[in-house]
Amino acid sequence: MGQLFTDTDTVYDDTNVAFTNVNNNFTDGQKTSIGGGQIANFNNTAPGTDITMRYGYAGYGWIWKYEGSGAGNNNKHILYSEGAGGVDVQVYEMTQDGNTIFSKNLSALNLSGTNTGDQDLSGKVDNSQVLTNVPAGAVFTDTDTIYNDTSIQGEVDLNTAKETNVAHPLVETAVPVGALFTDNDTTPIKKGKANQVLLSDSYGNNYWGNNFSLKNSLKLCYVADTGLDNINKSSPIMVTFHDSTQKYIKVNLNNLDFLEEKGTNGEPWVLSLGGENIIYAEVLSVRQDYGEIYYTVKKGTFDPAPNEKIEFFNPFLNYELINRSPLLTLTDLASITSTTYDYLVTTALIEGDGYYELIIEAYGTTNAFYRAQSTNLQDWTFVGTELFPTYGGSGMEMASSPYRLDDGNLLVFASFKKTTPQWSSVIGIFDSIYNEIQTFGYVTFPKPADVIAQYEDTLEILDLIYFDGHFRAIVHYRKDDVDSNEITKEVVVKCEKTDVNVMKFLERGFLDSEYKWVDVQDSAMFNIFASSKNDGAKYVENNGTLSLFVSAEAANNGVGITSNNRLTGVATLRKGLTEDSEKWVYDKTSPAIINPMQLHYSYPDLDWTWDHLGRQMSFVIVNNTMYVFTSLGGDQSTFEYAPAGLKIELNH
Predict the structure, then answer these.
(1) Angle at 436 between CA 432 and CA 441, to 5 degrees
(2) For residue 630, what are the contacts with CB-CB under 8 A and spacing of at least 6?
(3) How does pLDDT run across 180-204, given as a tens digit for each residue?
(4) pTM for the full model?
C-alpha cells in the first residue's frame, strides 16, 4: 500500500501529443458517486472557475467545457464543435439536474424508449407517458379555480332579465310587440349557380354566367354587316370592285379570314345576291392581303355592280344534316301523303326508356299525328298508327313537346280553332302510349298589359320548362290570323317543381301578382323579322345555362337571306344580381341555323331542303352533341315538307 513503481526501461514518444497545462488545484483521491474505474478526476476548489478539455486535429475537433458556479444547479457541461478558422459551434448545454438544451436540429430516427418532449402519445390518452390511464371520453372538472365576474355582473343581469315584450333595458326606444322590421335600402343579391361566375357585359351590367351558353358553340355562319351585326345591319356589306374576267370581287370588309373556314363536310362559303339566295357563287379562295375573293358561279347571273349589297353564308358550319335525307323513307312518306297530307313536320320529341319518339304532324284539309322511333337519334322507324285520332280531324295542332309529369304521364300542349280564325291553347294528360287520362282543358294566364283584348283567346304555348326554381313558358298570341299581328311573350312563376304547381301555373292557379312577364319579342332577335311570323321558340338547358332558340319567317322584301325565309337565332337568359333582374340577350351574329337555300345547285342530294325550316323544332343534347329535329321542304312531287334532323357538335 503506497508503494511507488519506477519504469526505467520504456521509451515514450509524445511527438504527436500536445499537452495543455491546467492551472487549478485538485484534491487527490476523490471519486464520483458512480462506481467504476476512473481515468481522471478533476475537482475545482474555486466554485467560479471553468475547466476546458479539447481533443481532435489542428483547427478541427471537439471542446468539452465545465462552466462552474459552485454548489447548485447552474453548473453546466457544454459541448462545442471547433470549426475551420476557429469558429466554435455549440452543440448542447446540460445543467446539473441533467436537463439538456440542444442548439442545433436533433434527429430522432433511431430513438427508443421514453424521450420526454420528443415522442407523441400514439394518438390516445391511454399511454405509457400518462401516470394513470385516462379513459376515452373523460370529462375534466375544475373545482379549485375561483372566477370573479363582479365587473360584468350588471350586464349579465340585464341580458338575462325575463321580458314579456321587446321594451328591453338594452333598447333605447321600446319597440311594440308584433312590430315588423322592413329593409328599404338593401338590395338582395342572388347567388349564381355552382358553375357560374360574376361577369360584366360591354354596357357595364353585372350578371351571373359561364362559358356554357350554346351560342358559344355556334359559329358565325351568316355575315351581312361590316360590324358582324346581323340584327341591325346598320353597315351592310357592299361590293367595291368586280373583275368578271378573273372572277373575283372586293368588298368593304377588312378581315376576310372567316371565309377560309369550311363546313362540317368541307362546304365553302357562298356569295349571295338578291332575296332567298336566288343568285349565288361559291368562294374558291381569298387573297387577304389584296382583299380579293375568288369565286365560281353556281346559280343565276352573278354580276354584282359597285355599291351593290352582298351577303355571305354557310349553314353547314354549325350543323350536319342527319343522313342527308328525310328521317322517313319515301315509302313511309308516301303512306301518309297519299291521302290528303303533303306537309309533314316534327312537332315533339319524347324520350322513352332506351329510345326516342318523334311526333309527326301531317297538315292538309284535316290534321293527323304519327310517330317514329329511334335508339340513336339518327335512324328512325315509322310507326303507322295514328295518334290522337279523336282530335286530329278537328284541327288540332301541336307546337311544343309534351312536359313529363312526375308520375311518368305526359302533359300534352295543343291548339284548337275555337271560332275561325281564333286559336286557343289547351292541355291534356296522356300516358306513355298516348292513351288519354285527362281530357283537354284551356290554358289561362293573366293578360299581360300589352296584350289587347282581341289577343286574349288566341294564345299558344310554344314551350314550357322548369329552370332555376321557376316554371317558364313561351306564349304566342296572334290576332285575326295575320302574320304581322303577333306578340310573343314569356310568363314566369317562382315555385317548387311539382305536378300540382305546373297545373296551377297553366290554369291561373297562382295570384296574378305572382305571374311575371318577360319581354322576348321586343328584344333584338325579333327586330330582324319585322312584319313576320314570330311563332317559334324552344328552350334548351345546358350545364346550368338556359338558351332560347327563336325562329321566325321574315316578310318577302327581295333582299338578302332573311327575305321570305324562316331562320333561327339563339338568346341566353342572363341572370342579374337581384331576383328580378333577368333578361334575354340575343347573339347579334344570329341567325345561327339557316336552311340550305338553293344550295342543291351545289349538292343535288339536298334538292328537298331549299325551302323554309319548319317553325316547330325539338332539341336534345346527348354526349356533347345537340340534335335538332325540324322539317325542310322543296316542293317535291311526293311531299312538300318532310321531317329532318340536324347534328350540332358542342365545343364544351
Answers:
(1) 120
(2) 345, 346, 613, 614, 616, 617, 618, 643, 644, 645, 646
(3) 656 555 544 444 444 444 454 444 4
(4) 0.67
